[in-house]
Request: fold
Amino acid sequence: MRWLLLPVSLLAASVAFFAQTAPPNPTGISAGHIHIVVADPAAYQKTIISVLGGMPVNAGPLTMVKLPGIFFIMTQAKGAGPSGGSKGSTADHMGFSVKSFAALKAKAEAAGLHVQEVTPNVQAFVTLPNDVILEVQEDTSLPTDTAFSHFHLTVPDQNAAREWYMKTFGGVEAQRRPGLKGVGIPPGTIDFLGGGAGRGGKGKDGAPPPPPPAPPAATAGRFLDHIGFEVKDLDAFVKKLQADGVKMDSGPTDMTKQFGLKIAFLTDPFGTRIELTEGLSKQ
Reply:
């Protein structure tokens, strides 16, 4: 099968600055949003804008930031609140490309965020409040200051995950760089990081091998509660999923009067909660 090498600058070129979401793939799917559940959505919105830029958007209970190719959506935490950040869950981190790494790093540090450089002056992990991790990487050819790059999911079986996302959402085999296989869904990729599978390695001096690492936690109930895809025709797509044997958690539900969206939820076989929306592209 053919692999697509996807330079981030080419992915972002089709997504004009502040364009709502990318044009959908032939199945009618594009990347939609990253959903954060926090005590103070407005403060989180300000933090994201101070670091990544973007346009503030508010619709009913949804506090949003519109960025090239993706939305952040923040909602109010209830009860005891979320159980943890993105690290340790199936949604390990989200990736963005930036035109200037130095400028992004300066903004992140000015906001009091931890920046862990991976490739000096090029690539880093930035920890947002509540331990939500972003990966940022410089791409000087980027037509915008910032653009969505990828969802990075931790799964026990990378091949099975790729097959499921391709079959379910019409994604194509893709890789952001050689050796990193993923699934292309406009305008970026879903990358899969192995974790929580297999034995833990060989024991020393004939001792039994250590237990395998704990599987990553499901995302529901964490600060990064779920990822989202925008769907061209949600009702028809959900019917197709159900006909294919995919179990829906809820929906479709028409919330256009409340905040301009139709929504539905499902959970992938590995624990990542997914919201399907119709109407986010019009926000």
Observations:
- The first helix runs from residue 8 to 13.
- The helical segments are 8-13, 41-52, 101-110, 158-169, 234-243, 256-259.
- The mean pLDDT is 89.
